[in-house]
């Protein structure tokens, strides 16, 4: 049997057996429902249709309604003005909950009037109404003083904001996507990578691996297992993302960022590379253990390295994407999957650097797989206590 056929058969076996298992199906269904619920429930409990009812006691100053509506539009609110003939009817509507606040300003603007709430004061609405009334009084005063309206508009113009050094504006949606990508890579490492680890230990305990190795070489078994679980993991993530996108589209409560195809491709590539690197390490480390408890201890170095790499990307690279730490981490296979997408979001890395980083990471994966395959072959058939890497290496050569 050819090598690639062996790898394909092992991967197919992992996909079919794990994909149709009740635990996997229930896990995907439960997590998908959790994703949908986490987006729908807040939109129901904290729904804000953008409309604010404001009671206005008549007679009110000319232009007050227009100023309130314009101020609301400036902060993304639609101010619905409800006129009341007197204070009594306005207070009754306030007590009945028909409006959250009532504004009473003298028609001649002799005073700033008052803003009435039933119980709790909304500081945002207070600021909005206050600034509207003050602006209306100043405008009326200046107009009555004989200042032309054109000059009044001119003096209200905001200063121009400039920077001494031109800096390319970063697309916040791209940066957000890069952060999400780093989290997904971490999820891939701890989720699907540990599935490889537990799968190796389970097959070793049940001695299924002895039957499989009668027809498949150890290195092909390891590669097929990493490939199959990785495909299954990507499908699982795709289901979650699609569920989130459909929910966001249906509810209309969440804005979807505008992203470039290049950024998506970059994230997918580094997700695959990061998973392949760490899953391979977890796979051969799992072969050293004979029980799940030992497997957890054996995987500690990989867990620590992954967490340190993630925090380097989030803190060091975010603070200085072109700094020395970021540049060094770009060419370290363990940190490159987290670092490169973030640097790309900051426009702090060029295409040549990305390609070189990919090449270095691929080389690191191949070296790790070559070493790990031998360790896996020497340890996976040993049923005694936890083996050391040196002993597994020697056992494979015998």
Summarize the structure.
It is built from 16 helices and four strands. It is mostly helical. It has two domains: 51-155, 3-Layer(aba) Sandwich (D-Maltodextrin-Binding Protein, domain 2), CATH 3.40.190; 170-397, no CATH class.
Overall description:
With about 400 residues, this protein is mainly alpha-helical. It folds into two domains: about 50-155, D-Maltodextrin-Binding Protein, domain 2, CATH 3.40.190.10; about 170-395, no CATH class. The protein is built from 16 helices and four strands. It has helices spanning about 5-20, 20-45, 65-75, 85-95, 125-145, 150-155, 170-205, 210, 220-250, 260-285, 290-300, 300-320, 325-330, 335-345, 350-380, 390-395; strands at about 50-55, 80-85, 100-105, 115. A four-stranded mixed β-sheet has the order 2-1-3-4. β1 (about 50-55), α3 (about 65-75) and β2 (about 80-85) form a beta-alpha-beta unit. Residues about 165-170 have low confidence and may be disordered.
